[in-house]
Amino acid sequence: MRSSKIISKLIIVLFCSVFQIAYAQVPANVNNLTDKQLEQFLKQAESKGMSEAQVEAAALANGYTAQDIATIRERINRLKTNTNEIKPGNSKVDNATREQVGEVAERAPVAVSDKQEVGKKSEIFGSQLFNNKDLTFEPNLRLPTPRNYILGPDDELKIDITGYAYQHYDVKITPEGTVKFENLSPIYINGNTVEQAKSKIIERLKTIFAGLKNGTLNVDVTLGNVRSIKVTIVGAVKNPGTYTVSSLATAFNALYLSGGPSVNGSFRNIQILRDNVVIKKIDLYDFLLKGVLTDNLNLNDQDVILIPLFEKKIEIDGEVRRKGVFELKETDTFENLLSYAGGFTEQAYTATINVKRNTSKERQILTFDPQTSLKFQTQNGDHFFVGTILDRFENKVQIHGAVFRPGEFALSDKIKTVKQLIQNAEGLREDAYLDRAILMREQENLDPIYIPLDLGKIMRGETPDIQLKREDQLIIKSIVELRQEKKVEIIGAVNNPGVFQFADNMTIRDLILMSGGFTDGATGKRIEVARRLYNDESNDKSVEIIKVDISKNLSPTDKGVKLQPFDKVFIRNLPNYEAQQSVQIVGEVNYPGTYTIENKVERIVDLIARSGGLREEADINAARFYRNNTLVSVNFSKILKGEDLATDLLLENGDRIEIPKERQIITINGQVLNPTSVAYQPKLTFKDYIAEAGGFTEDAFVRKLYVQYPNGSTDRTRSFLGVKSFPKVQKGMTINVPLRTRVRMTSAERIAMGTGFVSLSAVLLTLVRLL
């Protein structure tokens, strides 16, 4: 079959990367191959003359799978439909491909202009069927041989004789409708089914195969390559013309190739003509809405598909499940339209429906009840609109607050008054505030109004009950809601300090117990309670401080001081209590490690002494001191000599001292000809070290030169009357020579500066003359 030839070519395309037969390499993942690459690789593979078997064998040896072959075949089927669709003026597709996928064979199609559309401009329901590239209705050429298939010229039969002997024949039906075997006379099978043709062939073969008479031989007749037929599509179609399609093609195959009905074409009355007689009428809505393919009959050669103009286009919008434009038959009513639209949504207003209708002069609007007028007659151009129900309730009342079951209730015979509403809400809670409740009601202009109620008297029957209305809301507050929430707070040396709920009869001991008890360093002495004062006297005192001493064992026999709402309790630590604090010293000391601070006056020199002092190889000038992981510049040499007591810092928790070995090199970085590191030599000066690095570059900013000493301190170059004084040389230091940033003036700036100098010179000359 021709389709197998195309697939064979495309299998070669799939594996052409193995032999690099194309100028662009196929991706390792066949899914990454584009359609354009597919076409290019096909041409390259054909030019190399490689067979499918050769390429496939090499590809399997290189790790490709049978799944890759199946994937590329699927891509080819899609490519056939997408790239070879009927387009005006498309003359570059080869004849074999045109014949296989149904390209126009007789003449180029003519597209129908949308400007000629009658009626609605919106896309009609069903047109998306022919615009979907993933839906092709392509005939399945791998089906078993259809027993009712009618044979004709160009059909190919495959005949296998099996048994004690084997013989195979590939015969093609001639234009005269016959097939020939060896020296036997032709057998006429045109118009026969495969079963009928098989019977004739067996009878003729019995003359040369005796085993067919006694049953020792078997004959199997199957359909090979099928013939092509020509189908003409006319009428209101997007691309009318004559199409060459497979003899297995159906009406849907041909309709898809032609692009389907045009904007004026009918989806409901497509006619199949055979020998000038209408043999079938297709309603595409049966397939679109029900998935029924009973009308999708197989086509014969010279069949004509006629797509007439539509009869009625109706639009429906609003609260329906499938809104849009639908084609209706002449007798269809609103009931049919509603079924096409999928019915009403749950929010649809079904009491009345509006329809806009065209008259001979202008438009009019009609309103009908779909519940009583479901058979409402439709007219071409009608526009139905289904509205949305109102976002309001006709019988809802609400109750909020201090009841056991607050929420929404239906206004009914059981719930007409405030008291009945409370009873249906399971009654009032114990903390309900009965002296006043609020009934919120909508007035006639929908503005809210508050109606105060004495709920206690209503519940006791002392005052008349209040009748409820739609959308009433009863709000009942609790006693707790009408006062500030009562809290107490404990701060200081307890395990879980914080805010706690106040309760009557609560004492300080209760609050300490709830907070997890005293910490290890806490003291029960000098406990303070800060209490609010409530008085109208104009004085400066707003808080009362109560001092309490209690034991730390929290004995239950001693209730202690009772608390009041909003009290704050402060628990102190023992005066000399403090958790251990540690510092660290590492490097060239005799006993490096972590040490605990003994007292509050311990300093750096004390820690060095506790660590056993410095080793011989220690470089005290390079020692560094860190606090909170930040380097602090400290001159250890002066501290140890007692010359700089101010920088002998008091130790704090987390301090760290690093004392390295003696550093014997000096590093020069930045704008020198050869940035490098050189050995320290006591006789060399600062300039000598610069010379060791090749000297300064032209862009060196010498006045901003600075050094960084091993202990983290820095120093810079100083200048007085043009004489530069460089920093002191020290072992392990780093010299940094920064880059001079030159600001170049523009031409305009140079001219302006020159003009300024000339003007200044003129002014000075004038002053000299005057003096």
TrEMBL record:
Top-level taxon of the source organism: Bacteria
Pfam (any one): SLBB
Membrane association type: Multi-pass membrane protein
Soluble ligand binding domain segment(s): 230-275, 314-358, 487-532, 665-701
Residue span, SLBB domain: 581-657
Keywords for this protein: Cell outer membrane, Ion transport, Lipoprotein, Membrane, Palmitate, Polysaccharide transport, Porin, Signal, Sugar transport, Transmembrane, Transmembrane beta strand, Transport
Polysaccharide export protein N-terminal domain span: 144-221
Family statement: Belongs to the BexD/CtrA/VexA family.
Descriptive protein name: Protein involved in polysaccharide export with SLBB domain
Naturally occurring in which organism (per UniProt): Emticicia aquatica
